[in-house]
Amino acid sequence: MTESLRQHIIQGLDKNIRLDGRKKDDYRKVWIEYNVSNSAEGSARVHCGPTDILAGVKMGIEKPYDDTPDRGNLMVNAELIPMSNPEFEVGPPSDWSIEVARITDRGIRESKALEQKTLCIKAGESVWSVMVDVIPVNDAGNLLDMAGLGALAALGVSKYPGKKENGKVDYEKHTDKKLQLACKPIPVTVWKIGKHLVVDPLTEEEKVAEARLTITTIEDGTIVALQKGGETPLTVEEIDEMVGMAIGVAKTLRALLE
Q: Is 207:139 a contact under the CB 8 Å cutoff?
């Protein structure tokens, strides 16, 4: 069945037509809703066609890591729930959920988008810890890109919670102080199916792809993170084309952010 689907998809791509009628470099309609959670410090809901992602930010006060005593902590978690995709299972994080979280984390961390020094309360003793949770409501393909976009959208509207007299966090109060973001790293994954390169894949296209490359770029086109998936190698020419496609798509996605 998978091979028959693969051949059917490739035959369409030979004519630059995908299963849903798009061209190889076409993205589905993407839109973002902000502050969808009252309990999060910042949140966003990202839609890409029927793919639907929730991202939320929680902040707490913790001890800094020993190697970064004057910097706040950043953690990204992806919770892939069965409701969003029948192939997802309850229990420990799957390899796919770990990869989604790591790619999202790496783009934010390597771009230095989050000003972690501004999260320091007292060096070596206490810092703000920023925790980003990504949860798909419906996975209809392109989870990697939408997780990164959702995380960045939620961070962009996040505000510090209040503090009690004893120094503990007061989650009942929200301040007007926003998290500082130095740039907007946008991940775009380009998938290889046969000899063809596509963006924003459907679930069916993901299943038959031989390789993928996630390219995270910032506003000036600088690449801040790369992650390859799949066993099939990529040529230098293919990587060049993938990077060009990713930079172009990233500009359009970045324009959607507040």
A: no
187-220 burial string, b = 16+ CB within 10 Å, else e?
Answer: bbbbbbbeebbbbbbbebbbebbebbbbbbbbee
CA–CA separation, 83 vs 212, rounded Å? 25
DSSP 8-state code for residue 181: B
Distance, first Cα to last Cα, the chain: 43
Strand partners for 159: 178
Query: Tokens 């792809």 belong to which residue?
Result: 209
| β 120-122/169-178 pair status | unpaired
Domains of the chain by range and CATH?
2-254 (3.30.230.70)
75 neighbors 83 (Cβ within 8 angstroms): no
In the predicted structure, residue 173 carries a pLDDT above the cut 90? no
pLDDT at 115 > cutoff 80: yes
Give the confidence band of 165 by pLDDT, cuts at 50, 70, 90.
Answer: confident
Name the nearest CA neighbour of 95 among 106, 103, 84.
Answer: 103
Distance of CA 185 to the CA centre of its chain: 9
Longest dimension (CA), the chain: 66
